[in-house]
Amino acid sequence: MIDQIKGLHHVTSMAANARVNNAFFTDVLGLRRIKKTVNFDAPDVYHLYYGDEIGTPGTVMTYFPFPHIARGRPGTGEVGTTVFAVPQGSLPYWADRLTKKGVTGVTPSETFGEKRLSFNGPDGDGFALVETADDPRTPWTAGGISEDHAIRGFHSVALRLRDAGATSELLGFMGYDTLETRDGVTRLLVPGAQAAGVIDIETLADAPGSRQGAGSVHHVAFAVDNRAAQLEVRKALMDTGYQVTPVIDRDYFWAIYFRTPGGVLFEVATNEPGFERDEERAHLGEALKLPQQHKHLRPILEQQLEKLD
């Protein structure tokens, strides 16, 4: 069994419009844009990162905004909901804020004894806020939301699958414990995780498969401390029969990827080196940063890429 996984590292999704996406996460949700760079494989497309002050692993939502991409079709084989943690007692504030900002699908509920507020992103993305107690993370408050209400980072992601069995077994191998099942949803937790340690699996045996597009999660990433731990995880997964990519340098972390039995793309990402490697903390997310292989494209990209601010 793998014991190097620390919980969630980041979640990466797709969007149809960079300016709308940027405004939603920085203005509506009050997160900090911590990096403005480009897709490694399609440098004419932004890769935008949002999170806390420094992009602490477990707080970072990232997006590929492909202009005019068709909207995704929700279904099985994907991350259905990305869930953020907020302080206890803050959901009434968020219900009022989201409604006034024109956000759709704002719906209160309770799951596993936790108060929850579901809502839609600009592309129909599935999001929720969950009230948590004693979250040790310091929120970003310069986005205009007070510490009493601000998002702390991820609480969980919910996988939507036709059959939970094989993926539950995989997550068990990755160090997750199964806590309980309620109403067709199985909850798993990394032991000892103070935050961003929960995975929910929703079983929908008769639902159609998903089709990726705007509003879809591209992949979910799990955190390990460093490259040595990542190599140990890679070997363990490959010894178990998974096809895992070589280690890829993503500038702000190193990454490996593999496809799960349920069809969801998993990544294992390092907590090093972080987002301050090429920008000072006070100016994170301000300048366009380019991977080494695309630096020669800067004059073209600065003309082509849509202005965000």
Automatic annotation (TrEMBL):
<dbReference type="Pfam" id="PF00903">
    <property type="entry name" value="Glyoxalase"/>
</dbReference>
<dbReference type="InterPro" id="IPR037523">
    <property type="entry name" value="VOC_core"/>
</dbReference>
<keyword id="KW-0560">Oxidoreductase</keyword>
<dbReference type="InterPro" id="IPR052537">
    <property type="entry name" value="Extradiol_RC_dioxygenase"/>
</dbReference>
<feature type="domain" description="VOC">
    <location>
        <begin position="7"/>
        <end position="132"/>
    </location>
</feature>
<dbReference type="InterPro" id="IPR029068">
    <property type="entry name" value="Glyas_Bleomycin-R_OHBP_Dase"/>
</dbReference>
<keyword id="KW-0223">Dioxygenase</keyword>
<dbReference type="InterPro" id="IPR004360">
    <property type="entry name" value="Glyas_Fos-R_dOase_dom"/>
</dbReference>
<protein>
    <submittedName>
        <fullName>Ring-cleaving dioxygenase</fullName>
    </submittedName>
</protein>
<dbReference type="GO" id="GO:0051213">
    <property type="term" value="F:dioxygenase activity"/>
</dbReference>
<feature type="domain" description="VOC">
    <location>
        <begin position="153"/>
        <end position="271"/>
    </location>
</feature>
